[in-house]
Amino acid sequence: MQIHPVLLCGGSGTRLWPLSRKSFPKQFSSLLGESSLFQASTNTLTGEGFAPPVIVTGSDFRFIVTEQLAEIGKVPAILIEPSARNTAPAILAAALVIAKTDPEALMLAAPSDHVIPDASRFRQTIQAAASTARDGDIVTFGIRPDRAETGFGWLEMSQTPGADFAPIPQPLARFVEKPDLATAQAMLAGGHHLWNAGIFLVSVKTLIAAFEKYQPAILAQTRAAVDQAAQDLGFTRLATEPWATLENISIDYAVMEKAPNISVVPYGGVWSDLGGWEAIWRESNPDGNGVVTSELATAIDCKDTLLRSETSGLEVVGIGLENIVVVAMSDAVLVAHKDRAQDVKKAVVALKAKGAIQAETFPRDHRPWGWFESLAVGNRFQVKRIIVHPGAALSLQSHHHRAEHWIVVQGTAKVTIDDQVKLVTENQSVYIPLGAVHRMENPGKLPMVLIEVQTGSYLGEDDIIRYEDVYARGQGAKG
What does DSSP say about strands 402-410 and 448-456: parallel, antiparallel, or unpaired? Predict the structure, then answer.
């Protein structure tokens, strides 16, 4: 029997601001290595004994998900949540979808933003729990702790694990909420506790039965959202109306902490949820002085410090720093004491309160056809760099408040302006008057790059009227 992975791909990851933001959260970033966390998680849960994964994500991320999956050659099922309702409805929706074709299936629910370097060992740990899950238990996975961590929930075992942390299922004694430091130190010393990774294995019929017993309203509403779901360009869109009435609740509060049939399996390998910049520093192999630098960062006489530049051409230099995190992007710079890394989310709250777009908006805006970024913004003008994937096309659209001037710097653009269609090649330009119905396409086999100069009284992304769109987006900035 194959295990069906369910990867949860929502969340904003505010503790890793400015690299992780609401419009482009951490699971899509390449924080450690070339692959994104989402791609690495997908690869970890792929292979012998595993069915193609089910991805649960939001509408704004659906094309980022498909683009990153295409890069690693994966074509899973993708469920679109109409709005964020926490993990309980998301996981239940996936279980109901899987149960339609395999009522006896085992499903593995997991976040898509964790780091598990030893994929083989982790898959073996999951397989070791399969028989217990088939027998009707909900099996959660606990991580061997190596420090008194206060940022995680913990799991109390009924038996002390062996020295090798062999993946042997045992009854779970209880869940422990995020502890204070003294409690965490006592649990670490006692040897009967594990970190709660938020990953669990269960048969779909067991999970559905648990919701029927403990959360019948959530089950009824989620089932309605699944039964009324619509297919859209290969995505499954859960129905908006029943979904909107769902309670915003985690799977732990909804079911896990109520059910008596919970087992735990220890995992003794390396794991991290990358829940803050201190975790990024720790997982990035600091040098002998405890220093981590990116390619465009230089540390001089620093100690226990992380220096990262995320923008090409922007050098970051630290001198005499100790226990400091510096993360520089084109539109925002974070400087924090490493011991206060968990408080970065407070910066996001403060920025939102003052109306700063940097709080939630990533400087590079990803779209199904490619991406763009602003190079300069002033009174009545904006300059963008736009990248269009091979074979991709922007929607047929017009604007009420702006005109545009496009200069192709790489590749060839097929441009529609009202009833005229023409090719614009490198070093050529074209003008789109205010109100003109227009579209840009990349007919080539390489990415097309152009510079767009906008002029007008209003330059917001919501000044778009779409007439045709191959990506079936609605009106508005992203549709």
Answer: antiparallel
Cβ-contact 298, 313 below 8 angstroms: no
Spell 399-428 as b/e; 16+ CB within 10 A means b: beebebebbbeebbbbbbbeeeeeebeeee
Bridging pattern class, strands 138-143 and 193-203: antiparallel
Phi, psi (degrees; rounded to nearest 5) at 57 = -145, 180
Q: Determine contact, residues 172/140, Cβ cutoff 8 Å.
A: yes
Please state, in angstroms and rounded to a whole number, the distance separating the CA atoms of residues 34 and 27. 13
Instruction: Tell me if 32 sits within 8 A of 280, measured CB to CB.
Output: yes
d(CA 90, CA 238): 10
Q: Which neighbouring-strand residues pair with 266?
A: 142
Given a cut of 70, the residues of the chain with pLDDT beneath it are 474, 476-479
CA neighbor of 87 nearest in space, from 247, 315, 318: 247
- In this prediction, residue 479 carries a pLDDT of 47
Strands 438-441 vs 305-309: parallel, antiparallel or unpaired: unpaired
Instruction: Give yes or no for a contact between 47 and 77, defined as CB atoms under 8 angstroms apart.
Output: no
Secondary structure (3-state) at 118? coil
What is the pLDDT at residue 30?
87
479 vs 473: CA distance, rounded Å: 4
Alpha carbons 306 and 284: distance in angstroms, whole number: 9
DSSP three-state, residue 179:
coil
- Provide the pLDDT for residue 98: 96
Domains of the chain (ranges; CATH) run 3-267 (3.90.550.10), 286-351 (no CATH), 364-468 (2.60.120.10)
The 3-state secondary structure of 294-315 reads CCCEEEECCECEEEEECCCCCC
Report pLDDT for 236: 93
Predicted confidence at residue 209, as pLDDT, reads: 97
Residues 6+ apart with CB under 8 A from 176: 153, 154, 155, 156, 183, 187, 193, 196
C-alpha closest to that of 3 among 37, 62, 44: 44
Q: Find all residues with CB under 8 Å of 31, minimum gap 6, and list them.
A: 16, 19, 37, 274, 280
Look up tokens 């549709």; give the residue: 479
What CA–CA distance (Å, rounded) separates 85 from 13? 16
**Is residue 479 within 8 Å of residue 469, measured between CB atoms?**
yes
Q: Give yes or no for a contact between 124 and 269, defined as CB atoms under 8 angstroms apart.
A: no
**Coil, strand, or helix at residue 215?**
coil
SS3 370: strand
Give the C-alpha separation, 62 to 414, whole Å: 26
Give φ, ψ of 417 to 5 degrees.
-130, 110
Give me the count of residues in the chain. 479
